[in-house]
Design a protein that fits this description.
155 residues; alpha/beta; Alpha/beta knot; 5 helices; 43% helix; globular
Length: 155
């Protein structure tokens, strides 16, 4: 399985970058996860809708054709870890490579979210973007560990 996490924003604080790298390094070759940082649009003098539209264009440019698009959104489905694991297992078994997308400071473009196969939320709480990336990568690792019967989930 090949998973892409595309996130608007290029510079993470050191603690977040270290955490993301740590989890990415743990995945086995047959369950590859890649993090791709997308340049955010300058917000000075531009309204939020325009910023979202420009960032959506950058996101679309990096998403492989035929990918199973999952938009991370505060109004998305509120899944448990078990539901997340079930979905990843189903996508893996169907040879569907998911792309998880985290928007910029103004969120994701409305049309982009409509085109997604799924809208998913990480938390009912508002999270800083760096923490959202860490949390998503950790949940992907946890899901892999459950699917592989690896002890991480219960350790």
């Amino acid at each position: 399985m090949k998973i892409l996490v595309a996130a608007v924003g290029q510079k993470l604080p050191g603690w977040a970058d270290a955490a993301v790298r740590d989890y990415l390094d743990r995945f086995p070759r047959d369950f590859r996860v890649e993090m791709r940082a997308i340049k955010p649009e300058a917000r000075t003098g531009t309204n939020a809708a325009r910023v979202q539209s420009l960032e959506a264009a950058r996101l679309r440019a990096c998403i492989p054709a035929g990918a199973h698009l999952v938009a991370m959104d505060e109004t998305g489905a509120d899944w448990t870890t078990a539901q997340f694991v079930t979905a990843l297992g189903t996508w893996r078994d169907a040879a569907r490579d998911p792309v998880f997308v985290i928007g910029g400071a103004d969120g994701l473009d409305a049309e982009f979210k409509r085109q997604a196969a799924l809208r998913l939320r990480l938390s009912s709480l508002t999270l800083p973007h760096a923490l959202a990336r860490v949390l998503l990568i950790e949940q992907l690792y946890r899901a892999w560990s459950i699917l592989a019967s690896h002890p991480y989930h219960r350790a």
